[in-house]
Amino acid sequence: MKTSIKARVTAVALATIFTVGFTSAALANDGKNVIPVELKYLGKFKNQPLFELNFTNADESEFVVIIRDQDGTVLYKDNVKGGSISKKFLLNTEELGSVDLQMEIIGKKTDKTVVFAINQNSRVVEDVVVNKVK
Asked: N vs C: which end of the chain shows fewer Cβ within 10 Å?
């Protein structure tokens, strides 16, 4: 009985470590005159992946946000304008399946581009624990 509880606790701990470890923000601020934008994976909402795109501008600039699938098909395109902008995206994986996506942000004023790749990987973790009882 103790062995199965330890195995379950270990599996939950590993799942938590992997979930927390991969929720860090992807920042695009590595030089001068770049787009101040970050994309975060927030987790799942109704079993669909949820992302948040944040812009932090001193001035009100205009950007184009484009989401493409692995074949280059445009799934979403929008113009956003403002100083501090936050947009959330809920991806419908039931319709899309397990495809790789790209989110491209283009600054109209600077003509700079930032591209984020969104890849989904599923893993099954199985722990087997052998303990000597006597």
From this structure: C
What is the rounded CA–CA span in Å between residue 69 and residue 55? Answer: 23
93 neighbors 121 (Cβ within 8 angstroms): no
Beta strands 101-107 and 74-90, pairing class = unpaired
Are 106 and 116 a contacting pair, CB within 8 Å?
no
**Is the pLDDT assigned to residue 100 strictly greater than 80?**
yes
Q: Do the Cβ atoms of 56 and 39 come closer than 8 Å?
A: no
pLDDT band for position 37 (cuts 50, 70, 90): confident
Query: CA-to-CA distance for 70 and 104, rounded, in angstroms?
Result: 13
- Residue 84 contacts residue 56 (beta carbons within 8 Å): yes
> Does the predicted model carry a pTM greater than 0.90?
no
